[in-house]
Write a structure and sequence with these properties.
The protein has six helices and eleven strands. It has 175 residues and is α/β, with parallel strands linked by helices.
Length: 175
Amino acid sequence: MVKLAIIFSDGTEEIEAVTVIDGLRRAGAVCDIVSERGEYLTGSHGIVIKSDKALEDFSVSDYDGIIIPGGMPGASNISANEKAIDEIKKAANSGKLVASICASPAVVLAKHGICKGKRVTCFPAESFIETLKTVAVYTGNDVEKDGNFITANGPLSATKFAIAIADYFGLKINF
C-alpha cells in the first residue's frame, strides 16, 4: 500500500491539501496529515484541520513520499522548520516522491536548494518565479513532473496535482 505524508501548517492553503488528501485516500493510499505545529491547525482561510501525526514523530523513511502544500504563511512556516526541511531533503535524496504546489516549490524547495536542476512550476508570482529560477528550470505549466518531483501552480490545479501523484504510484482516483 502506498503511504504518503502531507505537511500541514497554520496558514496552509486548504484546497491544495484537502483535495490531495481526499483524492489519494479515494485511490487507496494512506495519506497522513503531519502537523508542523500542534494537533489542530488553521489553514489560510480559517478552516481547522486535525493532524494525524506530529512532525516531531514523523520520519519520511516510513513513507513513499512527502507532499508540501502552499498557502501563506503556511509555506513559510514549513520552510522555517528545520525538521520539515531535513525530512524533505531525505525524501528527495532517497528518490522518494517530493510533491509541492503553489508557493511551496519556491518558498520551501528552491529556498533550500532541494529542487536544484529540476523542471518545476509554482504559483505565478514574480518573486516565486525568480526564486525558482535561481536553482531550477521554471516551466509555467499547471503541473510539472521531473523524476521523483511533482510540482503544481496553485489551487486551480489541485485536482490535477492529486491525479499526477496518484498516477506516479499507478493509482486511480475515483472522483
